[in-house]
Amino acid sequence: MNERNIDLRGIFVILRRRVKLVLFIIVIGMLATASLLYALPSNYVAKTQLFLDVAGADGSNTKQSNAFGLTNSIVESEVKLIKSEPVLVKAFADLQLLQTEEFGNKRSWLSVFGVPGSPSGLQQDEAAASQAFEEFNKRISAKRLGLTFLIEVTARSENAKRAADIANAIASSHIELKLKYNLAQTKSVQVLLDASAVETRKVLDVAETQLQSYFVDNLDEFAAQTSDTQLDQIRRELQLVQEDRARDERRFELLNEFGREKNWDILKSSSISSNLQLAQKQRDALLRRIEAEPNSDANEALDEQLELLQKQINLLVDQEVSVIETDLRKGIVLEKDLLSRARNRAVELDFPSPLLRQFYQIKASAETARKQYENALEAASSNRVRAATLLSDVRIVSTATVPLHAVSPNRPLMLALALLFFVTVAIILALLLDHYWGGISSSEQLEELLGLRTGAVLPQVESRDASLHARQQHLAFIMDDAPNSAFSEAVRKLRSEIEISAGKAKGNSDTGGTVILLSSAVAKEGKSTVSIALAKNLAASGARTLIIDADLRKPTIHEYLGLEGENGLVEFLKDTKETDFLAKSFKTRVAPNLDVLPGRSLLGLKTDALVSSVGFQQLIRSVRRHYDFIILDTPPLLPVVDTTYLLPHADVVLLIVGFQSTDQRQVQHAAKLIVEHAGAKAAIIPILNKSDLIAAQYLQHYGGYRFSGITQIAAD
Fold it and tell me: Measuring CA to CA, which residue among 172, 142, 174, 173 is closest to residue 155?
């Protein structure tokens, strides 16, 4: 079909003719597609939505939330953390996906057959687990929803419930791991804050000690330089308290040493109270009495008195130590109070510059140390409270639910697309086969193939008779029986083409009648019936017409016309002297102005030698003088060589091409033989025979005509 003028009717005819091929491709394609879709596992998608509080659960990052660029970075980082390996590994392990059929280990087919080199069991398990995790990773995605703080976690699985479980597990694992990390970080910070509090406390103690020592060391000088009676009174009281404290500390050390070592000589010290000294003297007296009378019966009573006295002394020591501890505490408190009163009074007085400058330096150092210690305590306390009330800045706002429908494969859509695809492929393939690799289906295609204008398109004619011979005879007499049929009209058009072409081929030369040679590329293209129909039409126009059955191998003209076969042509070609026998073979007046020179099949003939003989040339020259048109019905071009010897005699060559019955390469080869062997002036006219398309075209252009016997069947 011409690209410039697409014939939709021709396309429909081709599709009708190739309907089996089209249906076969569509059915096979759809079956394959359905099988593939059935084999493909269904994929379900579940989604969980998380909300990220960029200000923090405790609102501690409000400054960060005001920075748009930083906020975007935080959200995008959170998205990447959700798909991080620790989160996926935890979810994969929690759901025990390695035990499922979808992600589980599968034995290698190599190991099943014991092929050498197949991975060992442990290696195979590790490889399978790694591959399963990679597949799991591919089925997880996380993205930010627009410019919001919402993050959507998507999971795909072959099981609907598993898809929802995976999406929820990913979200839960991320929150749990983030809480765990934040708690560990908070504990680490707590350790550092506690250590900082201890260090700042030491610094504060040192600073307080320096400040206290400064007043203690310089209190006499302060009192002397200022001559302040109140400060001097405080100084004297402080000295007395310090002296008492020193005595108590000495006594406390002695009594503690006695308690540890039980050295009774310690109680003889003057620092010890009189009660303890008296008790010690009584003990010494008892010891002397026991030593003076070692074997006396009274020693047992003395020992008991000694033991009782020692217990009383220990009790007195404990009481004394408790009293001393109380006094020491009171002394420390009183000393601190006096020092505080002295510092406050000293601030009110005018010190000399050196003392005042040194005082303020020590005081500022102490205040700084106290402030640092208080800050350290506050930070440690706040961090401890934060650890106890730690919350995640990510929370689930929408849990994944079990999807009701699979997202892929979308079987209805895939089937519809597959149907569209295979219908398109089938149509294109049918058109390509029909246009390039199949037979000829239109006059335009024939013209494009040969570069010659098609002389006529003859329709397929239907006959009610079932036998081939009856159908062929029907075609032979259709010009008589149905003169207004589409076939008859096409033959008349062919006659006009021949008359025009013959006039151009012969020019002004007077060579007698016009020789019309009909042949085809292969057999059974209908050239004999076309020869008869054309001869009858020429004869009906008043032209003297002769049909010569030049197919000496399989002559059929006499059968179509119901005549007896004759051998006169063969005998004449063998011996040109047999003119009488040739004359008797002519069948005259078969129809008005129509004569026939039939033949009869004879076995063992060398037909190529006969048609190339001088006798045939003489025959053609003779009949040209007596007839206006001589029609040569010849054998097909490709199977035998006979026609190539007949082509030089022809003024007009009709190449009969069967509709969709002859391969295009065969048609091209036949046309090439005609061009090579026909005369230079011979007109070559292709004829498309047995077409089912011309009838519809005829009815369209000549709607007033009606005729029977037109078949609508496909050529093949």
Answer: 142
